[in-house]
Amino acid sequence: MLSHPPFRKVFPRVASRSDILVLLNRYDQQSFQKHYIDTAYAGEWFEIGKAEYEHMLNTRPPIFVRPGAFSVSEFKGGTVAMVLITLNVIADERWFMGFCDLRVLNCPEMLREAIVACETNRHFRQLGHQNSAAHLVAENPLCF
Questions:
Q1: Hey, which residues does 85 pair with through a beta bridge?
Q2: Torsion from C-alpha of 96, 101, 103, 106, nearest 10 degrees
């Protein structure tokens, strides 16, 4: 059974279209061995805007479409494909682009879980300890 590299956020804010182009072309194809290039992007993800998400949905035919996620048909290398995900994180709709090695079973779901864990933890660290509990009770009164 194949294992996937750990997922990691590679850009600190919502990426603009020009940021996305830089992120998609940051590995020099000539300077790495083929084995590394085939998995270079696997596990990386970053946040994008709604317009960029819809642009990707409308310009490239998908490999797969699932509720809240799709993968474009252009591979970054080997079996690593770009996966775009829409999520509600703390009551805000947000859009993300990540890279999954599609040989790994359930990799897009693993990406989704990694993004949710990272973004919700970041949100609650910003709120502080007392405010986070009040926020949870206010948004989810049936959970307590």
A1: 69, 96
A2: -30
Look up tokens 């910003």; give the residue: 126
Q: Which amino acid is at 72?
A: V
With 0.90 as the threshold, say if the pTM is over it. no
Segment 66-83, tens digit of pLDDT? 889 999 887 777 788 999
49: part of which helix (H) or strand (E)? none
Calculate the alpha carbon distances from 34 to 27, 104, 107, 113 in Å: 12, 19, 22, 29
d(CA 37, CA 25): 12
Distance of CA 5 to CAs 110, 114, 115, 126, Å? 11, 12, 14, 28
Distance, CA of 19 to CA of 3 (rounded, Å): 29
